[in-house]
Amino acid sequence: MENKRRALGKGLEQLFNAENLNFDQIENDIIESSTKDEIINVRLNDLRNNPYQPRKVFDEKALNELAESIKENGVFQPIIVKKSIKGYEIIAGERRVKACRKLDMETIPAIVRDFTDEEMMQIALLENLQRENLNAIEEAEAYKAIINSLQITQEELGKKLGKSRSHITNMVGLLKLPDSIQDLVLHNKLSMGHARILSKLNDIKQIETLAKKTVNEDLSVRQLEKLTTKTPNKEETKQRQQQPNEYYHLEGKIKELLGTNVKIRQNKMQISFTSNADLNRILEILNIDIEK
User: Fold this and answer.
1) Domain range holding 104?
2) Is position 234 within any domain?
3) Active site members
């Protein structure tokens, strides 16, 4: 068994370093490498949630539907757990556990594997990214965590997940929003479209005011976008008239890449940022590594 675990660990490392990240492949590898004797029934009371679980809010309707399916057909696939000091920690399958608890079940089939904390985090993130509809903020946090864990760029992560670089950049850019605004997104009071527009703004008070107005008046994404569109004054209009047309195109391209406001004026480029964390995000996109 120890040789099998070592081989699985090596396989897991290869999977995370592969060109494409695929949770189903990881889970299938674990299940196929397990014998029937290794699939055990674990008491639900002995299970502890994965501390690296990216999902903050679980859809009760979806959990009830899963519970009904389990009631009729049983647990379709064993969960994956890690032995801890007291009981087990869930590596993959937390929704199945919650659904079983709704049915007041006592046990659930599980496979025990000895993963590191980093591997636990990576598996939990992948399971939620590829199997569940994460909230925009949860998705953004998952992207950021994988980037930090694997020490890769946003562009590299996009390739591994089959996402565009601009999608990863825009999602991670949502994390610069104030916590109060992120909470509104987490609880589906603001959509990703609303959050993306607000994340382009630099004034925190303006962001909070517009977010409150959007929620209270049920504004559409288009309506919010109109509110954030600034009417240029005479001086700005004059500058734009004097500016070569290609600058507008460049500004738009760079804004899309960096997820922040960019101005090109008189042979100078101005890149806006709201905090040190936001600055570090921009530097990462530009592949600029500053030693402290």
Assistant:
1) 2-133
2) no
3) 94
Structural domains of the chain, count: 1
Task: Evaluate whether 154 touches 284 at the Cβ level (below 8 Å).
Answer: yes
Tokens of residue 188, six digits: 């589906």
**Helix H segments across the chain?**
2-16, 23-32, 60-73, 94-102, 117-131, 136-150, 154-161, 165-173, 179-186, 192-199, 204-217, 221-228, 234-242, 245-258, 276-285
Confidence (pLDDT) at 115: 78
Greater confidence, 75 or 253?
75
Mean pLDDT of 219-241: 69
Q: 30: Cβ–Cβ under 8 A, 6 or more apart, which residues?
A: 8, 80, 111, 113
CB 90 within 8 A of CB 47: yes
What percentage of the chain carries pLDDT values higher than 90? 18
In the predicted structure, residue 205 carries a pLDDT above the cut 50: yes
Could you tell me the two tokens for 186?
Answer: 């987490």
Q: CA–CA separation, 106 vs 41, rounded Å?
A: 9
Strands 268-271 and 79-83: what pairing?
Answer: unpaired
List b or e across 154-172, with b for residues whose CB sees 16 or more CB atoms inside 10 angstroms. beebbbbbeeebeebbbbb
| CA-angle at 56, arms to 54 and 59, nearest 5° | 115
pLDDT of residue 208: 92
CATH of the domain at 16: 3.90.1530.10
pLDDT band, very low/low/confident/very high, at 108 (cuts 50, 70, 90): very high
Query: Quick one: which H or E segment has residue 202?
Result: none
